[in-house]
Amino acid sequence: MIYSITNFRLFSHFGLRRRVRWTFTVPLFLTAVLYLQGCDGGLAPPELKPFGSISGIITYSGSWPPADSLDDLRFIAMRFIPADTADFLQLNKMEISSSLDLFVDTDSFLIENVIPGGFFYSGVAQKFSIDLLAWRPVGLVEENGGIFEVEPASRTVVSIHVDFDHLPPFPPESQ
Hints:
- The N and C termini lie far apart (87 Å).
- The mean pLDDT is 83.
- The longest helix has 22 residues, at 16-37.
- The chain has two helices and nine strands.
- It is an alpha+beta fold.
């Protein structure tokens, strides 16, 4: 068939040209509307909650271990209950203080920039040799079953008593 002006008029006469125009325009318009409704700020990162902090007072009693088995002493707050020392490699789920003073009656610590959330196993840990996993708990947070929460923009205060003559069991007993 040869297309001519006559065929175009026939095409236009039955309204097919309008139908063809709407066939492409309506889906294009709907796609644009749906796409624009899905934009919520582009690639901007989500708003971060302000950090919190953990501070505490540690009291010591009992006979301190010999200096050669006391490589380091730190407060460690864990977002999980460890099953064994291999769990100490989950550093992204722990908050760790700087080294604590040795051979004192009391000490304090402060950990800043703590991501808010719950901590389920926390206390003072002793590194007793040069081995990477040679850590053991020597005193635990006992208030509220050892569980505490760090809130955004606030400080959580804990207290720990370390009795070197009566160390807590590790791994912790299941409840």
